[in-house]
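anyone seen this seq b4? input:
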Amino acid sequence: MADWDIKKLRILRTLQELGTVTATAEALHMTPSAVSQQLTGLAKALGVTLLEAHGRRVRLTDAAQLVLRHAEAVFAQLERADAELLGYLQGEAGQVRVGAFSTAVPALVVPAVQELRRTHPGLAVSVREAEAEAAYELLAEGSVDLALSLAAHAPTPRDPRFSRVSLLADPLDVALPAGHPLAAEPGLRLADLAGEPWIFGSSGPWSQITTTACENAGFVPEQAHAAADWNAIWAMVAAGMGVALVPRMAMAGVGAPGRARGGAGVVLRVLHADQPRRHVVAAVRRGSEGAPGLSRVLAALRQAAAAQARGDGTPPPA
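predicted toks r here
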């Protein structure tokens, strides 16, 4: 039987993900020569050629792809074994590290942690804020145990490294200056704002979400100002500099759609007919779902997402 060295298989998988020996070495805190030596040893142990020259880079052979298909099943089984062993050793105690994008922290993670403190005080949850895409990188490298991300910026559900759970379809409301002619318009639709100056990020997930939502409504938004911070966006809308899409989670507990926010000069309106949504997902490394602490955190996040979807703390549409 061939020698399936787990450490070397992980190096091969990292090379597949990153594409170069240099990037693999940097990610694994190794030297390029050490990476090459480990992969040469794996190829010799398995009796197949794993890499072939491709210009100045290397390319995985068909045999390497076959090896990795089976290796993913091995990795998932090891995660399940770790989960069962953790359950045996820790029971209701332990630590779960969560990586989450900024608006998910107050809307979903904080309520989940508060509930877990009440029901499972021995379970410690540490939170690390990260961009939606970066959360998956942290999960893959083992820096966090659970990642909260957006479906539009997550790896495909067929990615064998992760198990995904859909949590919430977060509606996007529109922020208008309080004196805007459409601030009290009945049945406001996103398409009604086609001629408005828009405020959204110059790049990144929120820029893509805004432009995609507007394009689906039949127009390309004119970007008057670029900002990613919600306080900055809110201040510019209040000053009459433009309009902006705002995720419902970002405004949880801030103010009712259809009303000015506490003298800030901004009206949040729920869109009708063409209201866009962004889909929030949780992900764990495949096979780790059975870890007792991790399953508790997932359950608490589902509970928080259900409360958010019901509108707990968010008034009904105007």
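Residues 6-75 form a domain with the Arc Repressor Mutant, subunit A fold (CATH 1.10.10.10). Residues 253-263, 313-318 have pLDDT under 50 and may be disordered. kinda curious what u guys think
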